[in-house]
Specification:
Chain lengths: ~240, ~290
């Protein structure tokens, strides 16, 4: 699905990514792990076009996407959530879900006189499906952190995509919501979704991932089956120190 | 006499309501802290005046051309400020207003500079000349109704929600596949078009324009209207235009030296802004916080 080829990125005096090479397989859950500062989120930002690499290339289904704008990459079928949930605080849950549905809303004059026939029941079902407890008219700013995470996930999943990229999907949420998100991701796995996720919770990664890529200082230490990667001496050293 | 005076005030209110509502599109709905909106007002007034006087354009084509010219400048302003954010963007747009003022003042072969352009004709629509002040009020109200209805339809549409999302979190919106640069320049172009219409209405009403009309003083009035009315609220812009234009008029009936009226007007605006920010930070009808 994705191929990251010799990607390097420096921020001032810090070499954040020293030359990453890896591939993300299709129809599997791949976990990107590594200690803080390993360059996981930087790689996510490079893949989705928010940061340009100094060197190297990223390919999506064989097509080079380095240098493309984030919205272009999103429209190619890359759906992503962020570590800090990014919602639109003065818009309602309904507005959020509708915005994720399609790109018809970008047409200025077509929307001006468009009559808005909406099957609100279908959207209510989405709330139920994701366990979002507030109504469609609630503002994003009124939601708790966990509920915002669920809405963020619902939007990423509703947006037409070929891959879901989730940056710490269960970080900072309570055990109930964590279980809800985990079960939801397991369902998606069974449906053959391709998911690339970042997480620090190794138990969560072990339960969910089919394939794990361990990074340290922006370099791939080891990749492969979860059991192999999570017990690798180099990975343990990177997390715990020598 | 009094009724003529009141009608004059009403026309100015209507013009500023259009101007403030259009500013609210870029400032309140799209989150672009645009301090250069007054330049579009000036571009509209000058374009329409020059086209009707020197090129014999009829009023309607002249006002539309004025809007289109301002829209092109709106696009240009968005392009040159596309890498600026927050305060820097605000300063960039303020710089645009200063540059526009400098052009109005110094390109004398086009604008007659500080001498201004006199003799701007009253609008003629399908053979009918809008000559009397009361007719001009009716005419301005019709134009305002069209412009504000257009802005209302736009802001309540799905497209309008996208503009609001651009204001709230442009990064998140890009991952939904939306081109935020396009949304921003479209918003600025529409706002500029509407501001230019207000400028044309002003020029053809007063029949004389000079650069001083499109400078700092009017930027302050316009921003005060937008903030007092509240961000992302068209009815707020209309209500605040009424209050802010009427408020200093009351000074005319207070016994004070004429030299004091100007500074008192500025003090009133400042006082009102401070009170609003202290006790009603969202303004009269605002939907979002002033950040």
């Amino acid at each position: 699905m994705f191929k990251v080829e010799n990607v390097k990125k420096r921020f001032g005096g810090v070499q954040a990514i020293k030359g990453s090479n890896f591939e993300v397989p299709e129809n599997k859950i791949t976990a990107l792990i590594g200690p803080n500062g390993a360059g996981k989120t930087t790689l996510f930002n490079i893949i989705t076009g928010f940061i340009k690499p100094d060197e190297g290339d990223v390919y999506f289904r064989g097509q080079r996407i380095t240098g493309k704008h984030p919205f272009e990459i999103a429209n190619m079928g890359v759906s992503r959530t962020f570590q800090q949930v990014r919602l639109f605080k003065y818009l309602t849950i309904f507005d959020h879900l509708r915005m994720a549905d399609d790109n018809q809303d970008t047409k200025l004059f077509k929307n001006l006189f468009a009559r808005q026939k909406v099957d609100k029941e279908a959207y209510e079902k989405v709330l139920e499906q994701y366990g979002i407890e507030r109504g469609l008219d609630a503002l994003a700013s009124e939601l708790s952190y966990g509920q915002r995470k669920l809405l963020d996930l619902a939007m990423a999943q509703r947006k037409q995509h070929k891959i879901l990229m989730l940056d710490e999907p269960v970080a900072g949420v309570n055990a109930v919501i964590q279980e809800r998100i985990e079960n939801y991701l397991l369902d998606l796995k069974q449906q053959g979704e391709t998911i690339l996720l970042i997480d620090h919770d190794m138990k969560f990664v072990r339960r969910l991932a089919d394939y794990v890529i361990a990074l340290d200082a922006g370099v791939v230490l080891v990749d492969g089956e979860p059991e192999k990667v999570l017990t690798d001496k180099r990975v343990l050293e990177a997390y715990l120190g020598e | 006499m009094i009724s003529t005076y009141l009608i004059h005030i009403a026309i100015i209110i209507v013009i500023f309501a259009i101007l403030a509502a259009s500013l609210n599109l870029s400032l309140g709905y799209t989150g672009m802290i645009n301090l250069g909106h007054i330049a579009f007002y000036g571009i509209g007034a000058y374009s329409s005046a020059i086209l009707t006087i020197r090129h014999d354009f009829a009023f309607i084509p002249a006002i539309i051309c004025g809007g289109l010219i301002a829209s092109v400048f709106g696009w240009f302003l968005t392009v040159i400020t596309s890498r600026l954010k927050g305060d820097y963007f605000a300063l960039g747009t303020l710089g645009f207003a200063f540059v526009a003022y400098a052009v109005f003042l110094n390109w004398t072969s086009l604008t007659r500079g500080p001498l201004g352009i006199p003799g701007i004709p009253r609008p003629e629509i399908f053979g009918y000349v809008v000559r009397s002040t009361s007719d001009y009020l009716t005419f301005s109200l019709i134009v305002a109704a069209i412009v504000i209805t257009f802005l209302w339809l736009l802001t309540r549409s799905r497209y309008g929600k996208l503009l609001e999302a651009t204001r709230d979190d442009a990064v998140g919106l890009q991952m939904l596949g939306k081109n935020i640069f396009r949304l921003k320049y479209q918003s600025m172009m529409v706002a500029a078009f509407c501001a230019a219409i207000a400028g044309s209405l002003y020029g053809h009403y007063i029949s004389f324009i000079d650069p001083s009309t499109f400078y700092l003083n009017d930027i302050v009035i316009l921003l005060t209207i937008a903030i007092v009315g509240g961000l992302a609220s068209l009815r707020g812009s209309i209500a605040a235009a009424i209050i802010i234009i009427l408020l200093p008029e009351m000074l005319r009936f207070v016994n004070m030296p004429p030299s004091m009226i100007g500074p008192m007007r500025q003090i009133l605006y400042a006082l009102l802004l401070i009170l609003i920010l202290m006790f009603r930070p969202r303004g009269l009808f605002g939907k979002v916080d002033l950040e």
